[in-house]
Amino acid sequence: TELQLLLPWLLQLLHCVCHLCVNHTCETEAEGACWNSVMLINGKEEAVKSCLSPSELKGQVFCYSSRNVSKRDCCFTDFCNNETLRLNPEPPTEVSGWSQLELAAVILVPSCLVCVGVILGMCAVQNLRCNHIKARKQDPEEPVDDQTLVSSDKCLKELIYDMSTSGSGSGLPLLVQRTIARTIVLQESIGKGRFGEVWRGKWRGEDVAVKIFSSRDERSWFREAEIYQTIMLRHENILGFIAADNKDNGSWTQLWLVSEYHEHGSLFDYMNRYTVSVEGMIVLALSIASGIAHLHMEIIGTQGKPAIAHRDIKSKNILVKKNGTAVIADLGLAVKHDSNTNTVDIPINHRVGTKRYMAPEILDDSINMSSFESFKRADIYSLGLVFWELARRCSVQGIYEDFQLPYYDQVQSDPSMDDMRKVVCEQKLRPNIPNQWQSCEALRIMGKIMRECWYTNPAARLTALRVKKTVSQVTVVKDVKE
Ligand SMILES: Nc1ncnc2c1ncn2[C@@H]1O[C@H](COP(=O)(O)OP(=O)(O)O)[C@@H](O)[C@H]1O
Ligand SMILES: [Mg+2]
Question: Which of 26, 71, 256, 381 might form a disulfide with 51, Cβ 3.0–4.6 angstroms?
Answer without folding.
Answer: 26
